[in-house]
Amino acid sequence: MPPTVIGIDIGTQSTKALVLDAQGRIIASHQQGYRVDTPQPRWAEQWPEVWWRAMVDCIEGCLADPEVDASSVQALCISSLYGGSGIAVDADMQPLHPCLIWMDRRAESQVRWVQQHVDLAWLEAITGNGVDSYYGFTKMMWLKQERPDLWADTRYLLPPNSYLAWRLTGEVAVDHSSAGNIGGVYDLRQRCWSSETAAALGLDFDKLPPRLVDSGDAVGGLSEAMARQLGLAANIPIIAGGVDAAMATLAGGATAPGHHVAMIGTSMCWGMINQQPTAGSGLISFPHVLNGQRDIYTFGGALTAGASVSWYLDTFFADHEHGDAYAELEPLASALPPGADRLLFLPYLMGERSPVWDARASAAFIGLNFTHRREHMYRAVLEGVAYALRHNMQAGEAMQVELDPRLIVVGGVTQSDLWMQIIADVTGRPVYTYRENVEAALGAGLLAARHQGLLSLDGDALHGTLIERATPDAEAQRTYDALFQCYCDLYPALQPLMHRLDAIDSPLLPGKDNH
């Protein structure tokens, strides 16, 4: 039987596994959904057992496909959501607390402490990253300060893919992309943990697993017990994998400096490959999942992209299925002029990440009048996400990296021809998408195949069919250039009011977390 590999992506709302053959083709896939726990406003956490059960189900689902021979599987690689704090495990490797994932924003007081007590320029020069409650190191500080008994019992803090690889192999290791994404405690230039910054932040250095590996390296071999449970061969290599945004970017063809990909689903991540950390960019940087000792993955992200559209449809089309609402709105919104008749939307429904970095930022429609209808608001939401994309790309372009002229877009938004044209007109770049379903699980599969010598990921090798979806319209570009400047000016103008609104407390309002 020809050799195959398995790529797995542990996502925020679902896990997906797929089987690749030696040509990089997907021959089977399986997906399992779940939910995020949100016990308080701005909290977001998940128990790792949920991920474990979903991963096992997805592997078993793939192996049940008649096209797959379990004996042909040579390796397995794990991509995962950015796990924020990581999973606190005790000396017996038992989880002590849910993982505070990327969207959790509870560590605002820890952010303020860092801002007041640590030299931020020094911290960013070492780590390549700033300070925000998005980053895992601030969430670790929250665990230490708010859950001291748990912290005392914690042996390691493990990213999701590291924890799952341990369960498969019995070996503890953290890949460099996951370590770098924690920020604060990782030296981006030296590619190692920083005991110096950990001490300044008051974090226990010995809780960071000492073994760091490249994303394409094997953590260990599949244990005999797990091989029997899954129906795979014992000792096949379990590849470390890495952060899903970089994995999806790899699947989208980003293998060399200047390559860049926008991954737009529930949230948005635009990432580029470069080789030098650049302080002050307002973006997030960590070693890339390919050639990570040389290349850096730098990205910016909007917290709510597709989620903004889902919110809009749930709010204004509650009696419609989403598919029916899209079918009704797309032609109406397509007939509108660029700018939705001067209606702007700030897509800050959960605060915002880069380049704003404000957990208390809020969404807004600006410019509403009696002439606007539901299709105007729908188009404004699509355009608002496109402006957020351009805002992050602008920060990346300031780093003096020569970017590929084309913009590759992957994710659920590629189903909308209107959105693809808006993105082309707003960014001024031709937009390309893949005929195939390009996602993080594919990136994991590609790394596993590369480890086994089945595929090369060097140069401009693409594992899919690129299609040009939209080219910029010069007249639309001029309109969007003017509107984009308004968009950029809106947040600084509204930020004081956003914060004042957020600070209002009343016995008639729901309880609020401390921030």
Number of strands: 23
Strand sequence of the main sheet, in spatial order?
Answer: 17-18-16-15-21-22-23
The 3D shape can be described as: globular
Which fold name fills CATH's third level, the topology of the largest domain? Answer: Nucleotidyltransferase, domain 5
CATH class label of the largest domain: Alpha Beta
Global structural class: alpha+beta
Query: What is the CA-CA span between the terminal residues?
Result: 58 Å
Helical segment count: 16
Biggest pleated sheet: 7 strands, mixed
How large is the share of residues in beta strands? 15-25%
Helix content: 25-40%
Mean of the pLDDT scores?
Answer: 94
Please name the fourth-level CATH homologous superfamily of the largest domain.
Answer: ATPase, nucleotide binding domain
Count of folded domains: 2
Q: Low-confidence stretches at least 5 residues in length (pLDDT < 50)?
A: none
Radius of gyration: 22 Å
CATH architecture of the largest domain: 2-Layer Sandwich
What is the topological layout?
Blueprint (H helix, E strand, L loop, with lengths): L3 E7 L3 E8 L4 E8 L11 E2 L1 H16 L9 E8 L6 E3 L9 E2 L7 H10 L2 H8 L8 H11 L1 H6 L2 E3 L1 H10 L4 E2 H7 L3 E2 L4 E2 L1 H7 L10 E2 L4 E4 L2 H7 L6 E7 H8 L8 E5 L3 E7 L9 E4 L8 E7 L3 H11 L5 H13 L9 E3 L17 E3 L7 H24 L9 E4 L6 H11 L3 E4 L5 H12 L14 E5 L3 H30 L12
Parallel strand pairs: 1-5, 5-14, 9-12, 15-21, 21-22
Antiparallel strand pairs: 1-2, 2-3, 4-7, 6-8, 10-11, 13-14, 15-16, 16-18, 17-18, 19-20, 22-23
Helix pairs in contact: 2-4, 10-15, 11-13, 12-13, 13-14
Pfam family, one: FGGY_N
GO biological process, one term: carbohydrate metabolic process
GO molecular function: kinase activity; phosphotransferase activity, alcohol group as acceptor
